[in-house]
Amino acid sequence: MELTDYTDYLPFWKQLTPIQQQQIQKETTFRQAPKGTLLYGGLEECLGLILIRSGQLRAFLLSQDGREITLYRLLDRDVCLFSASCILHSIQFDITIEAEKDTEFWLIPPGLYKKITEESAAAANYTNELMSSRFSEVMWLMEQIMWKSFDKRLAEFLLSECDLEGSSLLAVTHEKIANHLGTAREVVTRMLRYFQSEGFVKLSRGTVEVTDSKSLKKLTET
Amino acid sequence: MELTDYTDYLPFWKQLTPIQQQQIQKETTFRQAPKGTLLYGGLEECLGLILIRSGQLRAFLLSQDGREITLYRLLDRDVCLFSASCILHSIQFDITIEAEKDTEFWLIPPGLYKKITEESAAAANYTNELMSSRFSEVMWLMEQIMWKSFDKRLAEFLLSECDLEGSSLLAVTHEKIANHLGTAREVVTRMLRYFQSEGFVKLSRGTVEVTDSKSLKKLTET
């Protein structure tokens, strides 16, 4: 699968020299990662800049004792910078990136991307904007954690999952929700049962069905 | 007060053209901010790149109902990027920056710094590294909040304050500590009293004296 229009992903494409463009075209590879693939983090090597054709990636923090918190998601047409975080010396945290759905993407090797950003101010500034976007998402999350009560965070999570899936029936375990929100399974179960008693959701084994998204939405706004 | 050696602050200085260097020299101004000055955030306009000569700045998040959490501190010789965050379109969070001690700094106007990063890949990459550093600090904080119990966070805070102040006697109220750590005053008071009963600290009106830093240190490591 060849990438035909680089400007879709790299807005600085036309500001590169023909030689730089050729280098990128030559070294870009197409990859497929089935759902569940660990793309980055832990013992995986520095992957490079990921240009997502289709699918869904999840970036998360992983604690020493195996707890998780989802930082952000990347979807079709998004560019993943932290899979190339080895090129940024000052990044001193470990992020984990997994394919949350079957994902197809193009990969620009880290060494080449580093070289291009060193040569091209436009590429370097684009990298800046990418990082600013992710930074903003993490700051939003931080505010949620610090200042939003858990009922609101859970309601927001369920609504955004419904949006992502295009369905009100979510195939997700309480354990998985707990990992997303960085809390314990029991906390999630208790709140989901409360939501069920209020008629907001319907719980079955391995699924959560949102039955009253209006009320959930209202909850997030109070 | 004229800045004589820009390379101390801007490692890309020698990669700039003579014209770019002259522009920066011409537009850099010296400023003084007494302790307590709000430098950035809220209704303040976009300030620019701050090069700290001496003093201490605190960057924090402020919630709608006035709660705070300290993100990071900047000290002598540090460069503050987020006081120029208006030049990064993708930054979508509001950070507040105040002088926590009397602070002297040089200021490069945001428009000029933006122009320089657009022209110079070295300057743009330096901006990237600056942002990576701050991002790393925020991620560290996130992990602290998510996964460290409050006794450890408080112990770490007290020890790092002693380091910053060069003294084991801290003139700080419980309210202020609560703001730093994003929690309620009562939570801080309760834990400080526990620390006092263990002989780690001695409390007086408006001060906390660390009397057993070894045990506090041990606490942070368990």
Automatic annotation (TrEMBL), chains A, B:
InterPro entries, sorted: cNMP-bd_dom_sf (IPR018490), Env_Response_Regulators (IPR050397), HTH_CRP (IPR012318), RmlC-like_jellyroll (IPR014710), WH-like_DNA-bd_sf (IPR036388), WH_DNA-bd_sf (IPR036390)
Pfam annotation, one family: HTH_Crp_2
PROSITE patterns: HTH_CRP_2
GO CC, alphabetical: cytosol
Disulfide bond listed as a keyword: no
MF terms (GO), sorted A to Z: DNA binding; DNA-binding transcription factor activity
Entry-linked SMART domains: HTH_CRP
Domain HTH crp-type intervals: 148-214
Alphabetical UniProt keywords: DNA-binding, Transcription, Transcription regulation
This protein's name: Crp/Fnr family transcriptional regulator
Entry superkingdom: Bacteria
Keyword flag Transcription: yes
